[in-house]
Amino acid sequence: MAKLAAASRQDFISQLPDEILCLIISLLAIDEIVRTSILSKRWKGLWRFISTHLEFDGRLMIMPLAQRQNPEEAFTPYSQLSTLLTEGVVGYGKAISSMLFRHSSDLLSCRFIHFPYSVISEEVGTWLKIMRLRNVKHLSLECEFYDIGTTESFLHNSEDDGEKISKPNFPTGIFSGLCSLELIYYTLRSSKPFEGCQNLKTLFLKNLNIDDETIGGIFKNCVGLENVCLLECFGFTKIEIHNPNLKILQLYALILDKLVLFTEKLEVLLLDTVTTPMSMQIYSLSLSILHCYNHSTFGSMLALTEEKTVLKAFHLLGYFRYFWDSRSNVLQTLTRLSIDLDLNDAIECILFASFLRLCTCLQTLEITLPAVQNDDLVNRYNYWNFRAACNFVKNQLKFVYLRGYKDNNQEFEFLKHIITKGKKLETVAIICSQQIDKQRLTALTRASPNLLLKLNFKIHSVMEEISELQDRYLYE
Amino acid sequence: MSSSVEAITVLSSDGDEFKITVSAAKLSKPLNWMLEDVCFSDDCDEVPTIEVNSKTLVKVIEYCEKHAPRANSGASDSDAEELKKWDIEFMKMDVKDILFHILMAANYLHMEGLYDLACQTAADLMKGMTVSQIRKIFHIKNDFSSEEQEQLRRQHPGCSFD
């Protein structure tokens, strides 16, 4: 018994090899990682050999554990805590630099979340230079949107205060050598940092103020890009990508006048709340997945202030001849279509059906019904009831996912249409937020012997869906 | 290897015999290599030994059997969610002892999923804890002199040590 008690008091964790301990502590927040150094001699300086991932979150570094519970006070200018934190903001950038210098192995991936002060004092540039020395392949940089404490006093001398806060002076070619890059909350006015970025494969830009020339330059420099996501960026009006390697493109909440894609390997295109471009040309020989949504409230507000209309899925599909480059064979490559559509609106249905009829490979349909029903009754006549099934519905369609089903008559008629006519149907999943008449659906005569009819109740959460989608393509 | 074999027998480092289904054994690269090797053919009596103690091996096999169906077929999202819940329950084990044997075993058997899960569990135990709390949880003995400790504090400005 005594032996057993002694064994359970034994320090097992310290006996693990360095490699495993490093991996464990790399999963902690940066302040906690550094604190492991004073656990015992075994742990001292162990963090310097972390080779997987380091995350420098400025918000955690300047806040002692006890204060992390009460962040509101920290964000109130001139409060006692805030003044204290201002000192922290000024000091932590140097702390990061010195930590990076002490870190002594190659590093695969690194993420920084910092305050605008680090941009003004140009510490960010120093960190980036060290990142290159450490052969970092995956880098994420985020400027904290809300300033903590008060850094105003450091800005008084400068004339263009507002812009300088988030406008970093990245050195030329600093991002060369990276495989993936994430930039959040900056102002970019030059594409020079992207010089030599042939190896960059994944680019994620969020909340960037970026002009046409810079964004054009970025796409010109990064010829190896395969996965691009632009989220809530502004300041530009056109996107032109001539890139034979691009596979995935996601555009969220953007004001666009011109969208030109010469991307023959593009497989996935996602458009969420993008304004209808005046000119749009898409050339791809491999497009297999197309998403078109209007989920972003930010994007809708942006379009409203610019007095532009948001691109609707049925519009994109119904008038596809005007958008798609004539050499594209989207009708022969598309396998999955994922859109917002009001099945109660006959005009939307007509345009949608006219596109479906032409598809030869499409198998999966994902339709999201509007969360709020449009009261406009003009187009509320029955459409699906009187339609003869096209070849697509009869012989191709395999999977249907219908979100936000409310059991309205026209919605039901659509389901009836595909269930009674689709001979190849395998799954019909209906996600509804309210009680529906199940009997009516299950009583339908099924054309396909293998059909699985699934009914799920789930509250329609747009935010959840958006983040799920981003993750799906970004971390595949 | 003959295709009729559905489960194999292995020995733990303590010498106990364990049965593991072929599909579950495939989660581990070294075990998979063993499968492809001759040692499981019908005319061979030799039972291979795995350098993991019995108590740990029971857990490792339990994990493999649970995860095998999904790893081999690729199940739906709802199954993935359920599996995650199961993982959390599975990891509610005696901190001081078996978790670290599992870490070593997962490393030795090249089982990525279990290895990541165990590392995350260990990290979660440290998250939000003060230095003295972490020492207490893992029975780590503070072997610094007070001067050394003071020096360490100075070396890490901007980080709190409480």
Automatic annotation (TrEMBL), chain A:
UniProt-listed InterPro entries: At1g61320/At1g61330-like (IPR053772), F-box-like_dom_sf (IPR036047), F-box_AtFBL13-like (IPR053781), F-box_dom (IPR001810), LRR_dom_sf (IPR032675), LRR_FXL15/At3g58940/PEG3-like (IPR055411)
Gene3D superfamilies tied to this protein: 1.20.1280.50, Ribonuclease Inhibitor
Entries under Pfam families matching the protein: F-box (PF00646), LRR_At5g56370 (PF24758)
Residue ranges occupied by any F-box domain in the UniProt entry: 10-46
Record protein name field: F-box domain-containing protein
From TrEMBL, chain B:
Pathway field: Protein modification; protein ubiquitination
Transmembrane segments: none
Stretches assigned to coiled coil: none
Biological process terms in GO annotation: jasmonic acid mediated signaling pathway; protein ubiquitination; ubiquitin-dependent protein catabolic process
Positions of the SKP1 component dimerisation domain: 113-157
General function of this protein: Involved in ubiquitination and subsequent proteasomal degradation of target proteins. Together with CUL1, RBX1 and a F-box protein, it forms a SCF E3 ubiquitin ligase complex. The functional specificity of this complex depends on the type of F-box protein. In the SCF complex, it serves as an adapter that links the F-box protein to CUL1.
Descriptive protein name: SKP1-like protein
InterPro entries on file: SKP1, SKP1-like, SKP1-like_dim_sf, SKP1/BTB/POZ_sf, Skp1_comp_dimer, Skp1_comp_POZ
Quaternary structure and partners: Part of a SCF (SKP1-cullin-F-box) protein ligase complex.
Entries under Pfam families matching the protein: Skp1, Skp1_POZ
SKP1 component POZ domain mapped to chain residues: 8-67
Organism (species): Acacia crassicarpa
Protein family according to the UniProt entry: Belongs to the SKP1 family.
Entry keywords, A to Z: Ubl conjugation pathway
Highest taxon, organism lineage: Eukaryota
